[in-house]
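Hey, I was hoping to borrow your eyes for a little while. There's a protein on my desk that I can't quite get my head around. The fold is given in discrete form, as structure tokens running alongside the sequence. I'd be grateful if you could look everything over and explain what you see. Here's the protein in full, and shout if anything looks odd to you:
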Amino acid sequence: MWAYVAAYEMPHDNAQRLEERTRIDYPVAADRLLGLGVPPTLRLQRAFSVPGQINRFERVLVWCHWLWFFFPHASVGYVLIRRPEKFASAAARMYSVFDLGAIFYWTIPTAPPWYAAEHGRLEDQDPVKVRRMMIEYGEQFWGDLWEPLYDVLGGNPLAAMPSLHFATSLMGAHLLSDVDPVAGGIGWTYAFTLGLALVYLGEHYLVDLVAGAALTEGVRAVAPGATPLARRLARRLARKVDRLRVLGEEG
């Protein structure tokens, strides 16, 4: 997880260079296709939001987004508590999704809807623009704490494809379902509510979610065959660590 966080944030150390490499238009085109001419984010905000206001439903969606910071890790922790024999496999699958996603963020940095709107790439004849409601409500709810909180948690705003918010939540739902149906039901409810929140709030395109789901299902499909190799590599690494420890003690 430390490797993921470092890989996620590092490209934004040079914000100007990252912006020069960022793709903006292709997810807009894909979402116009998926939304039958209008990106789903625009459809949802035009249908249900009122400019300058954050209604109760939107506040629930914002909180669903914020709670994501706990959900993937809590899912793996639940597996550890209830089915410890499945913990290693669950952790490997969850954090494989994180780390593979970071590779995409490095190689193909992609802008989210709110960024495209700020740069005039989501404009059409309708005067209603994409709002970033998480920022609007965050400033209202957290007050002076919002800016330092966002600085810590924001990391890299130009890392939208695939949506790891959605991908890891789907993986969490799968892992919880393997433990018991009640936990699985909670996991799936959260994952799909988060998916709606990400699109509605302008944080991700629908196509980002599709790519995130493909990543998760790909990891799940490959995991059984990759497990023996991963275990061999882990044993070799453990032996090397032991040797280095012995050399350190002798030295």
